[in-house]
């Protein structure tokens, strides 16, 4: 019964991916443990994705794609699964951002999301009240990191960001996080 609740409460794209993964695994004749071993994951990690207890990471999808010889079927879901990592109110923005040819932003309080390091993201999200649940926190961190895929696509977007000096001087996460952000070693 608990499994069913997890599956029912998961976003539709995650549910669909889980069903396709399960179908491909069963067609290939693998148990969850066998597929996990082939992918260098545990069987319980495969189970967690198939039961929607945990959404798949990009890395998991890539490895499953190869292990099941899925012909691009699993990999094609990444774009849609990434959107599920964002709050509903932000999904439309991310979709536009990923398709944009040009982005211009003026930031007064914090560093623009596309320029944030993982440490900065974690420090910033840790300030939320009420605090995020661990799973939601990690999903938001991963979502923000996923936005950086815009730098790897072709054609690359032209990005203009103007930061007020206060955003650069504001110590979010402490000196070590800020030095990583500024590219200092």
UniProtKB/TrEMBL annotation:
InterPro entries: Cro/C1-type_HTH, DUF5753, Lambda_DNA-bd_dom_sf
Superkingdom, natural source: Bacteria
Domain HTH cro/C1-type stretches: 21-74
Coiled coil: none
A Pfam family per the record: DUF5753
Transmembrane residue ranges: none
Protein name: HTH cro/C1-type domain-containing protein
